[in-house]
């Protein structure tokens, strides 16, 4: 994707930009329903839940919308996109940032039970959980061509979805708005943010957008990414440096690789024997490490690519028998063991009726659909992060890393942040929760206008919000309320 043209420098007194007006060229196909109870949850839901579809071209984009449990008329609105690509936003709702979780400890078969989770981001914001791209969760296409997706297409469809959603919920144009996501959505979130800021009309399908510059402090616009994919080369290349800093490989292996590979561990010349041998040593040392969190045991229960777990196969057979036998295996302590509960729950007919899912549109729901037809056509979004530094936005960006994540290591995130040439406004320091160090943070700025907050979660994996839900809630709550970590 070519770098966008440079925007004119904003006046210094203008601190915020907010999407204010949506004009539709035609009435969109939009359907939504209020959900006040869910199978597996005792009693009525203690929050306001809406589910629905928005038609975008040949695609039907499914979403869950949870109104803020605080002050919905004042609290921010967050659009959340889960990574993968292909992981349902329900993953984030129930495992990361939402107000529900499965009662995994007491599961004995049958329909999994849901319980309230107290440290939900919905305490501080209203959240749209979007199933994107098409083929993710309950989102589907009405044409064969519509099932094919890419970074660019996913971003455009998300942009169009958002504009139509605002047209049906104009009251949320009055509150601060953020775009957020984690994992692979580190690529998609900046693409969507750029589309919104530019007010692009993609292919004649998107509604016409007008951006109005606001000078009132209440209107804050920004984006947030957690454990983010950002640049294919940086993300992958940083794993060797991370392994060395975490004592997973020896000094000799690291320095040999660094010197003979010229700090390029991706595009390796096979005739460069010393480099190849050093990387072989690296692979041998990390082969049995769980990359999502190097402190956790390597196991496979609940993973979409697990040879012993095929959601499509086991659910067509006897899912209750499968999950009980799996959870009695040595992988009981697997950090992803509870992921199988989401597949059991979301494929239940009563659950889909309660969520108002259109019958016959998705043959088999998967927490993460690894079979989607998807082209990764945007190798890097560093140029977009650079582009955003020219906007006069006070609270534009927050980056979260788990410091034990070897999928998108923090050392790579720090590397591309440095390339933005920002000034450090708050030096590297610990941030605290309950009197204990919860992680470390540093704040950057440009001309006292653009502000970026980077924070780590101590012991966190990929993604940080799944391993340390409360810590990430506290981080988010402080950030959107313009409070220091």
Automatic annotation (TrEMBL):
InterPro entries: AB_hydrolase_fold, Peptidase_S10. GO terms for biological process: proteolysis; secondary metabolic process. Pfam families: Peptidase_S10 (PF00450). GO terms for molecular function: acyltransferase activity, transferring groups other than amino-acyl groups; serine-type carboxypeptidase activity. Keywords: Signal. Residues 1-25 form the signal peptide. Gene3D superfamilies: 3.40.50.12670, alpha/beta hydrolase. Transmembrane segments: none annotated. Belongs to the peptidase S10 family. This is Serine carboxypeptidase-like 18. It comes from Carnegiea gigantea.
């Amino acid at each position: 994707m070519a770098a966008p043209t440079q925007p004119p420098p904003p006046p210094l007194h203008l601190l915020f930009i907010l999407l204010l007006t949506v004009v539709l060229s035609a009435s969109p196909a939009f359907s939504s329903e209020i959900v006040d109870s869910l199978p597996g949850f005792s009693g009525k839901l203690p929050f306001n839940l809406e589910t629905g579809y928005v038609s975008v071209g040949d695609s039907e984009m499914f979403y869950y919308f949870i109104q803020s449990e605080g002050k919905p008329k004042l609290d921010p609105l967050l659009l959340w996109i889960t990574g993968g690509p292909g992981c349902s936003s329900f993953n984030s709702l129930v495992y990361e940032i939402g107000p529900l979780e499965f009662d995994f400890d007491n599961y004995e078969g049958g329909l999994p039970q849901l319980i309230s989770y107290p440290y939900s981001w919905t305490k501080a914001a209203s959240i749209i959980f979007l199933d994107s791209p098409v083929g993710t969760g309950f989102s589907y296409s009405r044409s064969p061509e519509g099932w094919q997706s890419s970074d660019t297409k996913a971003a455009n469809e998300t942009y169009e979805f958002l504009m139509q959603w605002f047209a049906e919920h104009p009251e949320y144009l009055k509150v601060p708005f953020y775009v957020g996501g984690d994992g692979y959505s580190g690529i998609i979130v900046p693409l969507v943010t750029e589309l919104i800021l530019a007010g692009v009309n993609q292919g004649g399908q998107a509604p016409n957008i007008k951006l109005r510059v606001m000078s009132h402090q209440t209107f804050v616009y920004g984006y947030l990414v957690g454990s983010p994919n950002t640049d294919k080369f940086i993300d992958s290349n940083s794993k060797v440096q991370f392994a060395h800093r975490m004592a997973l490989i020896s000094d000799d292996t690291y320095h040999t690789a660094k010197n003979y590979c010229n700090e390029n561990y991706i595009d390796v010349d096979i005739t460069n024997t010393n480099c190849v041998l050093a990387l072989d040593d690296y692979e041998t040392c990390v082969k049995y490490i769980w990359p999502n969190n190097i402190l956790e045991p390597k196991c496979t229960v609940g993973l979409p690519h697990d040879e012993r777990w095929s959601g499509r196969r086991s659910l067509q057979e006897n899912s209750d028998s499968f999950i009980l036998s799996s959870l009695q295996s040595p992988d009981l302590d697997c950090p992803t063991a509870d992921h199988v509960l989401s597949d059991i729950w979301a494929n239940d007919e009563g659950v889909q009726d309660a969520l108002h899912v259109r019958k016959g549109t998705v043959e088999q729901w998967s927490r993460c659909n690894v079979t989607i037809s998807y082209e990764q056509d945007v190798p890097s979004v560093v140029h977009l992060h650079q582009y955003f530094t020219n906007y006069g936005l006070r609270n534009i960006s927050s980056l979260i890393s788990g410091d034990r994540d070897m999928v998108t290591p923090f050392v790579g995130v720090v590397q591309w942040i440095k390339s933005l040439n920002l000034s450090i406004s708050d030096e590297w320091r610990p941030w605290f929760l309950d009197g204990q160090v919860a992680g470390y943070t540093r704040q950057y700025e440009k001309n006292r206008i653009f502000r970026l907050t980077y924070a780590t979660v101590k012991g966190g994996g990929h993604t940080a919000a799944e391993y340390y839900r409360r810590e990430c809630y506290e981080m988010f709550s402080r950030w959107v309320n313009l409070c220091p970590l």
